[in-house]
Fold this protein.
Amino acid sequence: MSADTAPLTKVDSAISGLSSSPPESKIKHRRASSSAAGVYNINDLESEGKDLLIAKETQKLNWKLNTSPATLDDKEVLKKFLTTPPVKKIDLHFPLGLEVTARNMKGVTIKDALDAIHKQFKKKADDELELPVLAGFEWDKEESWTRLKVHQKKEGAPASGGGKKKKNKAGVEEEE
């Protein structure tokens, strides 16, 4: 390297007196979020005092928390909004304290809620879950406006409408 000190040809913008923020004339319009019309922020609904209605279909799903929502028979139910009016995100609170958040800028659907729950439970075996089946959701505005309680049950309703069978102590099925 030579010892002459020639002036630098490139100038760092931080030392040449330029401001570090971009000029105001460039930013004219900020792109709107990708949310659909009629989809609310849950906090706005709380400030307006609007009540939430939960889709009744969630109570009839008999969905196991550790199975994919794609395994459900009724695919049309998954496309329905979880709440009316639709919201961008909602917290789902489990009795033991676990809380998951379902998000969708176009409105949280039943599938979004089930996906968020499944993500938490997909690695659990059936016998690890005390209450493995979704019983439904409950909204209690006195407790928390922004979250739904998740209700679980021991087992789903029987798929067939046949006669009920009970196992006796010997493990043999008998008709009631």
In short: The two ends are 98 Å apart (CA to CA). Residues 102 and 113 are 5 Å apart (CA to CA).
